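Batch queue: ligand-bound targets. Current item pairs a single chain with fe (ii) ion. No template structures supplied; prediction is de novo from sequence plus SMILES. Inputs echoed for audit trail.
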Amino acid sequence: MLERVETTFRDLLAALQIVKLYGTEHPVFKSYLDKAYASIQDILKEKEEFVVGIVGEELVFEKEIFFDLSKLVRPAIVFLKEKGIERLVFRRAMHEEELSKFLVFLSSKKEDIQKEPQEHLVSIGINNIQVSKLKVIATQQLLLTKDFLESRKLYETSLESINDSVTNVLDLGSLDHAVLKFSLRNIMENLILQHQEFLKLTTLKRYDAETFVHLLNVSILSMFFSSKLGFNKDDIMDIGVAALFHDIGKLYISRKIITKAERLNDEEFAKIKSHPMLGSEILLKYVDSLGILPVVVAFEHHLKYNLKGYPKLSFARKPHTASMIVSLCDVYDALSARRSYKADYSPDMIYNIMIKERGESFDPELVDKFFKAMGVWPIGSILSLSDGRIAVVREENEDDIFSPKVEVIFPEDKKESIDLKENKEQVKIARYLNPWKEGKDYLHLIKPES
Ligand SMILES: [Fe+2]
Ligand SMILES: [Fe+2]
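Prediction returned. Tokens below.
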């Protein structure tokens, strides 16, 4: 269901952007409108009404907050908030025509709407989309601890400046290197101070297919990992910057392909494979500000330890250490991210998949060190224990990556901290609970550490 809601948000957003750009007369609009309408109808097959809330500046559906989508639709959210709208209801009886008019309403200027929003909608013939003030949404139930929120804010601002930087490089405009370095330095400093809260963001932030989130996650993971490997601050920063741009070639290609109206052919698909080459070519233009490492990493991040992978080299050689670090973090993040076309992998599955590549894709020593730093069960993972209790991972044991230190959160009268390494006889990990599925009911029990 959540995936369908996300798709719907995205389709609505796309249609909204088209309205703004071309108006409703343009043929492109009709196809986007059809898509958005179909998505909503799809949800309305199971529900009488599809209710969307706005809490703060975030989009909410049931108890789920869609942080990243909120960012994308911010202008629409601001518009709604200005009009005092915090709750949207789409009813099953809604006609496509009503949705079309509603999108026009969303794209209009504040000054152009004189009446009360609901009144205005009715006056233009929209009867099955309702807007109102928010009733009660229990925000306490959401996982919004202070530390988490502060880290999230930094994460969001970083995401924004990263978004800008990457877009600037894509458009071959200027690159504000200072801003970029500033956000990455903040992240690095934060990683050192409270890496637990920060890493949690890379594991929890799953509801977005955005490449920018992937780039930022890989950058954070790479900085964390290289700090664990003992690199100094300057090197950590350089690796973080390189990681940030590793897939820039892909963005360039996908953009060109996305703007094509027709379906992708095999040739275009194969083109995606040229993204390391393309990325390094683009980054070569920025050697003065970014240095040479991003060029190297973009070029090498799909080269494997066993000298396979791509691009094909006439003289195969071992990739640069920074490339191997980024490549590990890249694969780890791609496997952790929940994609609609892929099953959701639990952390132990990810460990097994990656460890199989020990000596193949990855340098054996490096992949071992990676899991020593990350643990098999990352901090913040919700686990069901062999005695039936539910616990959250608080700290890794570097000498026993399978047995972290955990805190029991359920039942609430059985709370305690357990070092699973020291208590192997008594209790074990039974299984992983996905925080968006089975683990969802326990999220509100996770308190920040005192
Ligand atoms: Fe890539
Ligand atoms: Fe990547």
